[in-house]
Structure formats: structure tokens, C-alpha cells
Amino acid sequence: MIEKQKNYDSKQVKQVLITGATSGIGNALFKQFSAQGDAVIACGRNQTELDKLSHLAAQTCRFDITDKQQVKDIAEQIQTLDMLILNAGNCRYIDDAKQFDGELFNDVINTNLVSVGWLLQYLLPKVKKGGQVVIVSSSATLMPFPRSEAYGASKAGLDYLANSLRLDLKKENIAVTLVHPGFIKTPLTDKNDFNMPFLLTSDEAASRIIDAVKKGKKYAHFPKRLTLLLKLFSYLPDCIWQKIVIKEQH
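Predicted structure:
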């Protein structure tokens, strides 16, 4: 379901669509883009939360990103976009690798990766020449972590997708920015039962993403205290970094 809220002069403001706009990073992005005068289309599954954004949104769209038909129906009601921000996702863990949970794995891969294919199929054609696509992945792809078989695999797929897509969209003059957030305080991370070093707020994460987009960066990662540390760890011998990671996750 899509609800039109405001009329904008498309020549004066950017048309920005954000998935997962009702909470966490997506919600912070929505508020900051709206505050700077952009026409933001807020997308999510929770109508109650979308209603709270309606006074600021150009449009609100309620749909399930994993439902191909719903994505198609919504896209048919959207004219053009300057920016497509693919942020919605889920995080669930494999608690017992020996008794591998295939249903959980399927759900996470479908939500975080497969759904992006449908979003790109139906929404990418709406992005103007000179526009931007922003794909929010995770710094978890910088090295493997315990219990993250599903989440990490889905985000690693997003990394490759974004980097490959950038090559093919160059001729269309559409930029692609890949984002690697570290630990961000959101309803999802509130469920974590392990140490989360250098935790940032959603507002801090959104500010960094918007800054990267304005500068036309291909890659944004933050906080650098964490991401650079993870990259350094990945060059250490396996016996060293594995010991560090396992200790931090327990």
C-alpha cells in the first residue's frame, strides 16, 4: 500500500526512497534526508510506524520486500528516483552449527539478499541518470564470526552484488555506494548478547552515510576504529584472529 503525502517540485529536491525506514539506520536516514528538504519515500512493513512518518514523508509505502508481487505493485506507483537506498534487513544467528537451521538460513538469505534482486528489478529502472544506489551491508563481511553463517553470507552476497552492479551501471551514469556499518544501536542489535565495541547511534550512522553519498564515495565504512581493526585482524594467522573473535563473541 502506498500513500501520497506531499507534492514537491521535482526540479528543486531529490526524490529518495528508503527501505526499512521505520526503525534503526533507515529511520535515522529518513529523518535526516527529510530535514534537508528532500522528498523521501519511506518504506516498511509496519503501518503504525509508517503513520508516524507521514507528516514528513513525500510518500509512505507498506509492503514486504520479500514478496515479489508487492514490490512490483509499489514500484508501478513510483515515477522517478534520484536515490534508492536498500537498507532493510534482518539479523538472526545459527546457535548450533551441528544442528544447522536451514529454515533460518533460508529466511535470512531471502530477506537480506534475494529480496534485493526484486527491489532492483522493479525500482532500479526508476533511478534517473546521474542518480545513486546505496546498499547497506555490514562490516561483518570483513571476517567470519561465530553464529553468523546466515547473516554473514547474506551480507557478503550484497558486497559482491554492489561492487558488480557498480561496473554495469557506470554506462548509465548511476553511482553505487556500498556501506559497511559496524555495531549500531538498533532494535536488532539490542538483542545481541555479546560485546559490541565502538557502538554508534543510528543518527551517527546515518550522518556518515549521507556524508559518503554527498561525496560520491563508492565505499563507506564506520566506525573506522572497528573496521580498520577488523581488516588488520584478517591479515593475522588464523590461530590468532580466531582466538580473538571467539573470545569477543562469548
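Summary: The two ends are 42 Å apart (CA to CA).
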